[in-house]
Amino acid sequence: LRFDEKVRVVVFKSEVKGVFCAGADLKERAKMDDEEVGHFVKRLRNLMDEIAALPVPTIAAIDGYALGGGLELALACDLRVAASSAKMGLIETTRGLLPGAGGTQRLPRCVGIGLAKELIFTGRQIDGQEAFSMGLVNHTVPQNSEGDAAYQRAITLAKEILPQAPFAVKMGKLAINKGMEVDIASGMAIEAMCYAQNIPTRDRQEGMAAFREKRPPQFIGK
């Protein structure tokens, strides 16, 4: 996906009705020794980092349970859409663990330190409406009879992104992600570097031409 120029947006959904991702298989985990557990969690953390580093926008469609590593997967995405009935939580402390695939870092960046601490310390599960109210998800929708309401809303959201200039969207994502990790002056410098890369693109010229000619732009991603 990272190197496929045709990919504009990636949507993560589950094929299992009622479950987005229920997290690690604790029966499998119980058979591992300490070294194996450490290796397993490191690989999982690396996977989440790879997802977060995808150059195109990513959307998690949460139509059911997103628990533990399942919520960490959703947090690794840029945007999240949830059914109001979905259940989410970093429940690791209820099993003698702590989030190990990015949850302790991405949740506070998403909802703030106080709420993140409360959710992680208690292992509490929240529904889609609660998640929306605290900013954990971008949109919440009533579940439908097919059980894919969040996915359908995620597709609608993806279709809003698709017509926009692909390279500009990628640079916007890069500027936001890198800028959030530094002070604002350094962030401004990152924005300037990303903007400079966008200036010579054909899409920028097309955007200006389309505006002058009062027609929809036809972006090609170059």
Concise overview:
The chain is α/β, with parallel strands linked by helices and 222 residues long.
Description:
With 222 residues, the chain is an alpha/beta fold. The chain folds into 2 domains: 10-162, 2-enoyl-CoA Hydratase, Chain A, domain 1 (Alpha-Beta Complex); 166-213, Lyase 2-enoyl-coa Hydratase, Chain  A, domain 2 (Orthogonal Bundle), CATH 1.10.12.10. It contains 10 helices and 8 strands. The protein has helices at residues 26-30, 34-52, 69-76, 103-111, 113-122, 128-133, 149-161, 166-179, 184-198, 202-213, and strands spanning 10-12, 19-21, 58-62, 65-67, 79-83, 87-89, 126-127, 139-141. The strands form 2 sheets. A 4-stranded parallel sheet has the order 1-3-5-8, sandwiched between helices. α2 runs parallel beside α3 (69-76). It starts with 9 loop residues before the first strand and ends in a 9-residue tail after the last helix. The relative contact order is 0.13. The mean pLDDT is 95.
